[in-house]
Amino acid sequence: MDQMTAGSRRQMHGIWSGRWTFILAATGSAVGLGNIWKFPYIAGENGGGAFVLVYLLCIAVIGVPVMIAEVLLGRRARKSPIYAMSDLAREAKASRLWGLIGWGGALAGFLILTFYSVIAGWALAYIGKMWQGEFVHAAPETVSNIFNTLLADKVALIQWHSVFMLMTVGVVAAGVTKGLGVAVRILMPLLFALLLVLLWYSSQYGDFARGFHFLFNFDFSKLTWNSVLIALGHAFFTLSLGMGAIMAYGAYMPSRADISKTVITVAFLDTLVALVAGMAIFPIVFAASIEPSAGPGLLFVSLPVAFGNMDGGLMFGCVFFVLVSIAAWSSSISLVEPVVAWMVESGRFNRVGAISLVGVGAWIMGLGTVLSFNDWSNFKPFFGMTFFDFLDFLTANIMLPLGGLLIAVFVGWKMARADAHKEIAETSDLQFDIWLLMVRWISPLAVAAVFVFLLWDKLLSGWWQLLLAAILG
Ligand code: TRP
User: What structural domains does the chain harbor?
Assistant: First the structure.
């Protein structure tokens, strides 16, 4: 790599102060609404146990190897994903088309931000609701009424969406290391501690055994190709993979830091938070007779029931939603960091101009998600999905796995083996070969297989049967 660019690169955005800063930043990116809000509700919608097992397998077999690949690419190029991919493609004498990974990733990050900000806005709104005691001794029906009233209130949703978007723009404008590095170091452990308090509560007052059985009893009869795709997509979403966020963060990683150990730590922490959140939520869901398949409102209905009926629940509840908002905040900045870093590197924008432009665009498009929960809730032109459902599906289940597949193929097949090994020099030859086997074969084939089976399941098998029926008369 060109030493000149590597040097000026460092001046432009800064370098993390050490391995642990990277771990915190990457964990801050990974742990977010995906763990606390999305994981429980999609596990609920997809029948629990078997889905959870597939998700864990995807994290271990696809997520970890692809995350190592992303960090490695970012650190080698020391540039934002768009430039990183075109530089590395040139270095590997591969087609310039590999640069599309960077472009697709920037688009995916932008699209995710548009709805992420709306949902994070719900968490912000809940801080006030908790504080005002709206949930004190509330029955599940009362809580679900409060939630539905919030969803129907466009003005409130837009206000909170605006607040969250401004928070994101503010931090990215200030530079990622300064503001959030500090916040993440103190607040992430606090979030985890509070989840443990909730876990304790649900073990005391919830239907713990049933919650546990639901999440960890592997009943494969409930598993469909569609839920496998959702589990796969979520593995990418929750680890912030497939769109360059981790690649962008990898570009700021010190040269000597041990990539594989770091990645395993991040993946482990992320998974732990999701599972603890699940075990804090499901026992309450069952004890309060809420449907596990209640959808996006699951967190916002089940936990207030618990807080409302718990000693000190007012305070705990308040703190909890503050922490969820912060977890979302430290994730949302990583959604735009790749595109903002690229705009700055291109020399046409400064940081503030770049993030302002992206923020305004994402805010406007976010209005579509706001409307998906009220005026447009029955407007489903996108394969029977609302605007929000479609964006979520397109990004998490299509764009991220596809991005991850291409990243794996690039690192596994295009990049010189020695170059890859140099970045993860800490691994033994055997470990390196196992990793290479994963990125060359296992990850791409697994993603491709899920796509093919789903396509077959959804479209082709139907056509095929029609065709057969037509031929056989
Ligand atoms: N991982 C975050 C979560 O679980 C969301 C997120 C942040 C993300 N950055 C990303 C998802 C990049 C995909 C790609 O909430």
Answer: 21-471 (1.20.1740.10)
